[in-house]
């Protein structure tokens, strides 16, 4: 363990600081596809009984009309976050009729791309902008790639904890700048070590053969309907035979917040020749992408982790980060575990907390060019062959076995978990770390290995396995009706969201072309640093 990590752990272990660790906040966003009784992608509109996808605070859609996204509030106890996520699932199932929520990250058999419905958000300008943005995603990357689902884990540390660390270091920056600087340092360490999360929690080693749609790939045939790689952990996070040339050169610098926001500002304001050749409108004059830049908007950048700040109405994420600094981080690389009804459980959440706190407290020098490339290569190696016996990764210019490095990291994360347990009481974080240590010792315990074992033991295709898990989870959710009070709350939230959407639509006076022009112009107030 580094001297700096030991010092910071000792500092937070002091009696007057220990309670700060129980004030971290957690939130979860879970995506999942609606499917019909034959487990084909649902082509029905977003159920009106669930409210407005534009304005509902808990239930919305991501890319496709069928790709639901459930959003929890923030809690200091991740178990409460999961309890809320469970309630959202149970309410949704009460309104779905015969439709089901697909359990894994990777979709089953998809219809032709032309039939995959893009999410609709009504006739308001902001609703149309969200739709056109998704049309742009279809134009640039295809619709199939946008039907992958995942779990996003939002995490923040209390401002008082940052203040304690800043005082200990006698750092003279403003509190806002110090907090942002330290969140960026967390992100650098996340890039160094996130391959470990893919080994431990990757759950997509196989996929339906139709997903590749004839594109070239290096996957193997498991059966007539299933492609896989024998040691893969998360094909979801691999390139899957697909590369975004526009984004290939976009690796935002994580030296500090200004350099990060400047790199994204450049991407959302620099035209890309291939997109420029397509134009913003088709031959009939219909919008098909918001602009012809490398990124239409900031969220188009596909990253494993993002610095975040809650935005005001109409405010762009880059504006919010520049004006008020980083508020929390969003972990975006987590697969949905198809063995779990919610796709994640409290054991995983407790380990994530210890892992992210380790990334926060461990020393985090800036990533030099070689290390930056090695971090990306390590991640890609683990998602494609993380369970391969003897797999070696690159650390500080030298080869090291995955197992050795994982054991060293987990030993350090275990020290952080012990401190979290002292703060919260009990031993749940330490037990969560022990559960991951067992996976390092025995790769057959990982979700990815368990998926392949199920397919081979039962002679199932990927989609047959996924369907079985989907129906099992549906039975679980439908067997546990919400209380009358909870049902009433969700019903009212749905009604209110529909009324709010109607108000937004009624308030629009500007034509859409002018609205988009103003939206694009909002970037001009963000000059590069």
Automatic annotation (TrEMBL):
GO molecular function terms noted in the UniProt entry: ATP binding; glutamate-cysteine ligase activity; metal ion binding
Keyword annotations: ATP-binding, Glutathione biosynthesis, Ligase, Nucleotide-binding
GO CC, one annotated term: cytosol
Reactions catalysed, as given in the entry: L-cysteine + L-glutamate + ATP = gamma-L-glutamyl-L-cysteine + ADP + phosphate + H(+)
Classification via Pfam families: Glu_cys_ligase
GO terms under biological process: glutathione biosynthetic process
Glutamate--cysteine ligase domain ranges (all copies): 10-381
InterPro entries given in the database record: Gln_synth/guanido_kin_cat_dom, Glu_cys_ligase, Glut_cys_ligase
Pathway: Sulfur metabolism; glutathione biosynthesis; glutathione from L-cysteine and L-glutamate: step 1/2
EC number(s) per entry: 6.3.2.2
Organism superkingdom: Bacteria
Family: Belongs to the glutamate--cysteine ligase type 1 family. Type 1 subfamily.
Protein's name in the database: Glutamate--cysteine ligase
């Amino acid at each position: 363990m580094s001297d700096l990590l030991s010092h910071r752990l000792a500092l937070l272990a002091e009696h007057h600081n220990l309670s700060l660790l129980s004030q971290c906040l957690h939130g979860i966003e879970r995506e999942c596809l609606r499917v019909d009784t034959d487990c084909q992608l649902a082509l029905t509109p977003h159920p009106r009984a669930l409210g407005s996808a534009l304005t509902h605070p808990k239930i919305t859609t991501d890319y496709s009309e069928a790709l639901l996204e459930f959003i929890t509030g923030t809690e200091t106890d991740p178990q409460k976050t999961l309890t809320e996520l469970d309630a959202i699932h149970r309410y949704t199932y009460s309104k779905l009729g015969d439709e089901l929520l697909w359990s894994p990250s990777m979709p089953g058999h998809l219809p032709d791309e032309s039939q995959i419905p893009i999410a609709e958000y009504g006739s308001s300008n902001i609703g149309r902008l969200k739709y056109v943005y998704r049309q742009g995603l279809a134009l640039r990357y295809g619709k199939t790639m946008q039907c992958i689902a995942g779990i996003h884990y939002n995490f923040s540390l209390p401002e008082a904890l940052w203040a304690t660390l800043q005082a200990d270091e006698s750092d003279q920056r403003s509190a806002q700048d110090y907090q942002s600087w330290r969140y960026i340092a967390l992100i650098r360490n996340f890039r160094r070590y996130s391959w470990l999360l893919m080994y431990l929690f990757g759950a997509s080693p196989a996929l339906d053969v139709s997903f590749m749609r004839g594109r070239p790939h290096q996957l193997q045939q498991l059966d007539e309907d299933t492609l896989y790689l024998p040691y893969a952990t998360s094909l979801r996070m691999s390139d899957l035979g697909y590369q975004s040339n526009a984004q290939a050169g976009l690796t935002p610098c994580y030296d500090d917040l200004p350099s990060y926001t400047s790199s994204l500002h450049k991407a959302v304001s620099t035209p890309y020749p291939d997109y420029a050749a397509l134009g913003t409108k088709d031959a009939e004059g219909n919008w098909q992408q918001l602009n012809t830049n490398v990124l239409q908007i900031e969220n188009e950048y596909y990253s494993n982790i993002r610095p975040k700040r809650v935005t005001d109405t109409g405010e762009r994420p880059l504006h919010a980060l520049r004006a008020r600094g980083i508020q929390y981080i969003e972990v975006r690389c987590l697969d949905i575990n198809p063995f779990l009804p919610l796709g994640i459980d409290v054991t995983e959440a407790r380990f994530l907390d210890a892992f992210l706190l380790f990334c926060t407290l461990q020393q985090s020098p800036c990533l030099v060019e070689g290390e930056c490339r090695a971090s990306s290569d390590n991640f890609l190696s683990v998602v494609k062959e993380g369970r391969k016996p003897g797999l070696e990764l690159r650390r500080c210019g030298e080869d090291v076995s995955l197992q050795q490095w994982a054991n060293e990291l987990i030993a350090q994360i275990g020290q952080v978990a012990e401190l979290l347990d002292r703060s919260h009481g009990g031993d749940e974080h330490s037990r969560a770390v022990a559960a991951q240590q067992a996976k390092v010792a025995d790769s057959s315990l990982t979700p990815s290995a368990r998926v392949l074992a199920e397919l081979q033991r039962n002679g199932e295709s990927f989609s047959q396995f996924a369907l079985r898990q989907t129906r099992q989870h549906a039975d679980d959710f439908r067997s546990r009706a919400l209380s009358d009070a909870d049902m009433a709350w969700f019903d009212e939230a749905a009604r209110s969201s529909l009324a709010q959407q109607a108000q937004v639509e009624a308030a629009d006076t500007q034509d859409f072309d002018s609205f988009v022009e103003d939206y694009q112009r909002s970037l001009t107030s963000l000059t590069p640093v």
